[in-house]
Each structure stands twice: as structure tokens, then as C-alpha cells.
Amino acid sequence: MKFDVVGTSPVRLDAYDKATGKSRYTDDEPLPGVLYGAIAFSPVSHGLLKSVDVSKAKALPGVVKVMVAADLGDKYANNIGAVRADQPLLAYDHLRWRGDRLAIIAAESPEIARKAASLVTAEIEELPVIHTSEEALAEGAPKLHEMGNLADSMCIRHGDVEKAFSESPIILDNRYVVGYQDHAYLEPNSVVAIPGADGSLLLRGSMQAPFYVQGALAKVLKKPMSKIRVQQATTGGGFGGKEDYPNEPSAVASVLAFETGRPVKVIYNREEDLAYSTKRHSMIIEHKLAAKEDGTITAIKVKAICDAGAYLGISSIVAERANASATGPYRSPNVQVDTLVVYTNNAFGGAFRGFGAPQVTFALERQMDLLAEKVGVDPVEIRRRNTFSAGEISPLGDVVEADVNAMRVLELAAKKTPILKELKKGKEAHIKRGIGLAAVRYGVGLHAGGQRLEGSGALVQVNIDGSVRVNIGGAELGQGAFTAMAIIAAETLGVSYGRIYVGEADTMLVPDSGPTVASRTTVMSGNAVKDGCLIMKERLLKCAAADTGRKAGELDIKGDALIDKKSGEIIMDFATLANKAYCAKVNLVANGWYAPDRKIWNKEVGQGQSYTTYAHAVMVAEVAVDTITGQVHVEKMHAIHDVGQAIHHKGIEAQIEGGVVQGMGWAIMEELVIKDGKMLNPNFTDYIIPTIQDIPEIKITLLERPYKNGPYGAKGIGEPSLIPVAAAIGNAVANALKKPVMELPMNPERIKLNLLNK
Amino acid sequence: MAFLRPQSREELLNAIHEHPGYIMVAGATDVWPKIRRGAIKDADFIDLTAMPRLEPYCDAQGALHLPGSITAGRIAAGGDKMCKKWPLLVEGARHVGSPQIRNRATIAGNICTASPCADMTTGLTPYNPEVKLSSLAGSRQLPLREFLTGPGRTARAADEWLEEVILPLPPEGVFSKFCKTGRRNALIIAVASMALNILIKKGKIEHIALAFGSVAPTVLRAQKVEEFLLGKELSAAIIEEAAAIAYNEVKPINDQRATAEYRRQVCRDFLAAALEEAAQ
Amino acid sequence: MKVDVHVTVNGRPTIWQVEDGERLLDTLRKNGHTEVKEGCGGGECGACTVALNGEIICSCCAFTQQVEGADIVTAAWVAEHNPALIDSLVNHNAVQCGFCTPGVVVAADNLLKKCTCNRHKLGTKEIKDNMEGNICRCTGYIKIIEAIAAAAEEERHEV
Questions:
Q1: What residue spans in chain B does CATH classification 3.30.465.10 cover?
Q2: Residue C76 with chain A: CB contacts under 8 Å
Q3: B touches which chains (3+ CB pairs under 8 A)?
Q4: What ipTM score was computed for the predicted complex, to two decimals?
Q5: Mutate which of B98, B104, B189 to test chain C, going by most C C-beta atoms within 10 A?
Q6: Whether the Cβ atoms of residue C103 and residue A20 lie closer than 8 Å to each other
Q7: Looking at the structure, do residues A266 and A301 belong to the same domain, yes or no?
Q8: How many domains does chain A have?
């Protein structure tokens, strides 16, 4: 299909303002009378809180308000749990991690507020710290919550694994351990709460789920949602880290704003953000795989244990995707997956690009390479033998879609990358080179378990000058969502891209559209924009028909003008049409809406229609391992992606390049050093992320086969660009060293140790 | 809080004489992170950046005199002569932080911070440098290894200023190697580093100076390795033995960046690889 | 106690009244230069990069009093005086969340100035060596490198 705007690469809507420094992020907005909020966090990882002393903080000049749990009284609800009411806004009895809040402070400057926070002291009876999820599940472990430490669990039951294990000649039973990752978006969490005289609230901030924030604030403030307006300010990156966590600083700022009657900003510094915001879960994955002699998989049994930290947050939802991703694009007649979510005193597990899938993909794809080795075939062939095709029943219990691209991306990898070629020997004796492949099947959009949130809205307004404003419920985090929306709107309305303005996400303009996560915005919001534009176009054409005396069906809008469909004759330009429509009293605001079909899902056995559609990807990593230092250098990454139809070509490339580098960071360098629940490296000096000197060459191949329910055929790309990265690098390192790789990150020390292991 | 900005050598020496408790600051690239993590609190400062900028020069003996205020960036850009005669110094400077940091960080700051992982200090050490310390009472010169007394500790008296670093001319034809490891390729604090000068004449090691960073309380001069190698011919067996001595001579600790054992192994292997290269 | 600090910011002579020991980054932002961002506060990310007398520095690691008499350039100045660089970044899709971008812009402009003086072709290695202090979490850096290389080529052909 030929498009006018879709698939081109127009300049991003926000690029100039960002590059020239004009864009205003939350802390850049001048606001008269603003106060700054700060938080006194728990000095222990586990303990009983006896009392909090805020007298010194209160006495500090410039401090306007200090609050502890008791000060919330009946006016506010002391609960900020995203999924379960297990998390207080202000701690009152049980301290479960270092991110628990003893007191919140509003002061005239951020320096005074933080100084006051440092003056808060507490009487605490320390309790033994739970260091790992396995410790938490052990008998007799101290209970972090009344229900115990097993916070949640989900499963897949498909066939009979034990029978298959007893009958299969090949069994691979391994344990994989993967570490945390911080999002390290460049802008730390930032919000500002502005109280209205009528008891309403405007909350602006750096976030990716304004509707989550609205819901959380309504609960904490005990106010109707109608009085709470949440706007997303220009946001300096999210990657999942600003999905649910902004609820917390937002609630702090809002309570302080109502108590002081003044706007309150809460701007985290890097140290606070690293220590207290959510992280990619650390997981322990026990992976048992059975196969026939030819490598055909007969059974997969997985136990994935996710360390949630002290509160559930949205760990259940992350775990749901881990659970559903454990078998990848492979057929297996017998599957048993158990995913456990466990309370500990560690870092707070949450959403992060890939959402539980990168961890289980690492385990699965390592297993696939071990299987290939056992069977004596190459990494492509082993996957070829097991990748399922259209019409089969997948291990998730649904029928594999007719247009499944799993095998296509695999064959592209075989053809376009050197995965099957002999490795060239390097000159330096201490460098070992390797190549590795990993595949992913990514469910685009929310899992069936969360489908009540899956609808998305859009507002399309045509002005009498022919300009068009679009608002969506999705957020612009830097990924280019608004630009994609402008392209879809321009394509649908038949006008040029330059006419479209996409305004910030605002809960007052668009119905609850769910969070900006799960690589869902292009598909969900994009379809909503398309819907809104189609409604608008129909109205305009109907009006034009009445005006020109022609039939609406003979008319079209193309190239910024009303045209005769057959002859192509230009009848009037778009602005004239808009003006005519206005004078004819046509409603020039349209509300678009999109919600996929309801999915049938059985949680008890984890079987059903898990996702609306799937995007497939294969990555191939070429690495050079320095045997002196143990450092892994990723020299080249080949990324093959099934994207449906590309909406913005350069935008897709940028997403993939960013995803590869972020995934590489997690694979080889990024690590949270946690001792007794305390993060020891909450700064960029020691939480190490990739610099420009660390990046590989990246070769991208796009498989463009339009997806029937995507706007102009688009699928999501945000997360598939990261999920297979660590697995591919892991396989490449194993290939280079001829040794097993069972742990992430593959930091220099781990590799060096691995080299010494005989 | 006070923030003094002396404009001349005399003003500076008077200021530190009067206020020995004030912290001297130049690039501030280490001071600010320390303020942030609370390692410096409610301090007063004497700022060195208002002083005239001095140029490095070579004296009659060919020794290089670096003003304490010279930045890592300036050294990293390396005049040709510096690169040729003192390559480890230039390499060390190139490994400091990022361009933004190198443009501010001074050599005096790098030395006086007395961190075992200071890259410039590691690079300097094999040249047997001396530091010139000045106060109202006059100046004195001290070998760098005597100046560095422990992590964050130096022999500098409270009223003394590190005015100059003096690097003697290394022997002609010396082979130099600088190695560093960390989790990424740039903007990284050394987990272990090595700076080696070695001169082999007619198969025999005539001169050797070896320093390791991040593996002892101060940048370490590996004297046992040096003593072992001096006068020897390099062979596979000698290299292996020297590397084993290095493994034992370094005294690293476990910290959040790495374990002591990893650091020992890397030092051993850095040295072995460098000696192999030198032997060729 | 407030102290006067005389500076030229983006070509405009200015007198700042600052507290003893104030950070340059804070002074800049308080005086409306919100294009200078705080990403880490420890000199480790480069979001706060400004050019001080023609050399890039992290404004989070400098005392305002230290820049007395200095000439300071932020991204706002580059936007006005090197629109070709901005165009190149924008056209190469090298801007995503944008929080690192003003720092990238200052560092890249500084590099381009250096290489225009030398009139040599700007290679990937030189770009990386000069941009290693600017962390970007979105782009994977590739489009930033392409954009700077393209801007340099354009400038070279103009010279």
C-alpha cells in the first residue's frame, strides 16, 4: 500500500524545542510561590518504627510544613499501593525497605527541604533483613506482610511435563540468575502539584501513565477523580520507570500542596531516584527443558522467582508477562511455568522495557543454544526445528496467528547475519571472539489479565484555519509517540504533517487510555487517532457534499485539499473546507476510541488468548572478550524486527538502537550493588551505563508486513528492541569462551572468574 | 562559609597561612561529588582558579616542570614532546573522567586527592616524580611516593600548596604501557590500572618502573617486581614469575566495584601481557 | 552573604548576585537558563554541559564564583549561532527524550569549532572521544554521531 505520510521520516514534533533547550520539563517551569518537597526516607531496610522526631526539621528556617503518618489523619488515605493496598504513603509501624517514608517536608528551597529531611530522626527496632527471594520463601523467614512473603503467583499448565521428562532422551536442567537494572532516564522523577481554590488539583509531571497518577491521587486525597487533573509535562525518558512510581512523589507533592495551599514541586536528585524508584526485577529462573534426539522440544518447565522488594507495586503485572514469555516462539506440547512474586527488603521491582520478558528470554535462549550443542546443530537450525507456525496451538493455549512472523525473522537472521559463518580470528591473543543469536515473541499491548485497561482514546479538533489538534491518552517519553500520532492523523485526514499539533497527555481531555507501556501506544492510541480522524473526515465530506452539491462518496481529502476522487480535481483547500464546516455548524471535535476484542483467558491454568498480537525479533551479537580484564566488548549487533508497517522509519531505527544499547548495558555492565537491603551505588559514578565509547555497530533489518489491526499496519517496537539483547550477547559470550554463561550482568569480574573455571 | 579567591602566589600563600583549615579547590570535579555525598560539610574554600595560569617547561636537565594548575585536558592534548617523552602521563590524563572533567581537573588536585585510583597519579609514578610544596616559609621538594601517605592522606602541611610537579627525563628508548580496567570504556574509575616503563638493552632489563592503581592504599610502586626483573632477560618463565610476584605485591581490597581477587588477577595479567609486548 | 559575579552569558554581559559556594548550574537555572539540565549532579552525565571560555565543563561541578569574568555558552546560544548543528540533530532523529540534548548540543558545537579551525574531516573516533562525557539513554548514540559528522561535513564544505 502506498502512503503519503506513513513510512516517511518527518522531523519529530518536539525535536527543535528540545534541541534548542526551549522545552520545559517539570523543574523548568517558573511558578510563583512554589515550595519544594523532600522526603525523609527510612535509615533501615527492616524494622519497627517506634517514633519519629521532626522537631529539628520543623525548627529549620524556611521549612513550611513537616508531616508524619499521624498528620494524615482522616483527611488522607495512607495507601499508595498500585495494585494492592500494601504500601503506606507515610510509614507508621513496619519499615520494610529504605524507600519507606518517615516524613515529608515542604520548604522554600530544595536545599532547605533536603536539609530538613536529613534532620528527621526516628526510634527504630531493627529486624533481620531478608536478602534474597529464596530467603524470603524459606521456612521461618520473618514475614514482611500479614499474608507472608509470597506476594503473588501465576502459572501455565499445558500438557504433562513430568511424563515428557521421563520419556525424553535430552534433559537440560539449569538455573539462571539475572540482576536488577535501573532505567537511568536522564531526567529524575519530577512532579509539581498545584492546588485549586475550589479543592481541585492540577498535577503536572514527568510520567508515562497520567491516569494511574489520577487514580492514585483520588485515593490518597479522598477526592473525586473529576477534581484531579493530571498533565504529563515534557518527560525526560521513562522506559517503564515512570509507569507507577510517579504515583508516589505525586502523592507527596499533592498532600503538601493542600496542607500549605501552595504549589509544591518534588524533584528527585539522581541519588534518590536510583535508590528509591522501581527497577527491572532481579530473577532466579530454574529452567528445565526436554527434547527428542533431533532437538524437538517435548517439554519446558520453568520456575521464575521475581524479587518484588517490599511492596507489590505492579510486580504481579510484570510477572504475568514473564510467565507468558517463558516459552518464546517455540512449540512445546508440555509446558509448566510457575512465576512467583516475592516480598524482600531489597530494591523495588517494577516496570522496565521488556517487562519481565528479558529475564526469561535470557534463560530460554541460553537453553536453546545448549540444546543445539547437545544435538550437534547450529543455533539457527535448532530454532528452526522448534519455532511454531500459523495455526498451531501455542504453549499459551491459543492458536498461533495466521500471519505469524517468527520463522521469517529467523530465516532473515540466517541470511543477513554472519551467525552461520566461521568467525574471523583476531590478531590479539588475549581477545576471544564469539557470535550468538536470540529470538523473541513479544505480545504487543497489555496481557489478557490487564485487558480492562486496554482501551485508548483520542481527541481530534479541526480549527477554522485548517490546523488540527490531536490529544491522546498516551504519553510522549521521547520514543516519538506524538510524532507517530501526527503522521497517522495527517495520513487519515489527507492533510500535511505540518498541520498537526499533538498536545500533552491530559486526563481532562481524553478518556482513560491506560498506561504508556507494553509497546502499545502506536497501535492503541494510533487506532484511536485514526478513528477520530475518520469520524472527522466523514463529517467534513458530508458537509462538503451539501456545499458542493456532489455526493460525499465522490469526494476525498488529499494533499490538504478537498478533491474529486475520480478526476483528482481540487475543489477547495482544507482551511476553506474547515471554515465552511464551522459555518455549517459541524462539530469540529471528534473523539476517537479503540479497544481490541475481548480476550478469553483462564488464569488458573494460564491458558487462553494472552495478547492481541505479537511482534517477533531476532538479534545476533558479535562480541570480543578481553581475557585479561574480562571485559565484554559488543562489536556488532544485528537486529531483525517484525514491525508491521513502519510509521516513522528513523524513529523505529532510533528505538532499536536505543533498545540495543540499553539492553547491552544490562547484559554487561549495569548492576545494583545491594548490601542488607541498601543500595551502595546510587550515583552515576558507580551505577555504570553505556557511554558513546561502548556502543556496537548496529545493523537493522525491518520485516514490513502490515498487521491487519494496526493503524496502517503498525505494530509496537519499543520493547522487542531490548528483550533479546542480553540473551544474544550471553550466547555470543558463551560461544567465545566455550563456557556456560548463567548469570547477568556479564561484568568483567564474572567473566574473569568464568575464564578460570575449568 | 567563606570562598577566597587569591589572585597571586603571594596572596595564596598568605591565605593558606591564615586559614590552614580551608579547603583548596581548583577544578572542583572532586570537591562537588564530595559535598554531595556529605564527605565535605560546611567547609570554607580557597579557590586557585583566579591565579595566573602557568605553562609547563623543561629545565636544563630535561626534567618536565608541570604547574599544579595544569589540567588533565591540557596534558591529554599532549604537546608532541610530552607525548614522546612522558607518554604514561599523557595516557593517564586521557583516562581521567570525560572531556568536561579533564577541562577542569588539575594535576595538583589529582595528586592531592590521594586516591589510589587517580589515573594521572598512576601515570606519573613510574617517572619518579617530585612535588614542590610551597608555603610562606619557603618551598621544599618531595618524591611523590613519600608525599602520598594513604588513601586521602598526603604529607602536605596545612599551610602548603602543591605548586609544581617535576618529572625527570626517562631513559632513552624506554617502552611504556598504560592499562586500565573498569566496566566501560570511558568515564570510569579504574578498578585496576598499571603504568609500566621498561628499558631492555641487549636482552637485559636495564631500567624498570612499575606502578599499579586501585590496588593499594595509594598508587603503588611495585618494588618487588622491579627488583626481581632488573638485570634479567625476559623469558616466558621470568614473565610468569614476575606476574606472580605482582599478584602478591598488590594489596587490593574488596569494595562495591570489584573484589580484591579480581584486581590481583588483572594486575598479574596486565603485567604479563605488557612484558610479552616489551620483549618483542 | 551575596557576592557579585560578572560574566558574559550567551554573549550578554551579566552581573549575578550569588551565595558563597553556589553551584554554577544552580545560578544558571535560577537566572532563566533552564536549558542547562541537572541529570546527575556529579559530573557523570554531561546534561549540564556549558562552554566556559571555549572549553566544555559540567556546570554541576563548578562554583559560580570561579567563573568571574568568564564567557559562558549554553545550548540557547548554539541554537542561535549554529542552526546547522541543530538542524542536523533534528533531521537525523538524534533527539528523543531531549533531556541530554542541550548538553550534547554544547559539546558538539565545541567540537565542530575545534575541527573547523583545523579543517580536517571529523571521524567517528574523534566524535566519540569528544562526546564521551555526554550520556544519552534513549538514542544509543548512533544518530548523534551521524548528526555531528554530517554537520561537520557541511561546515567543512562551507569553509
A1: 52-167
A2: 20-21
A3: A, C
A4: 0.98
A5: B98
A6: no
A7: no
A8: 3
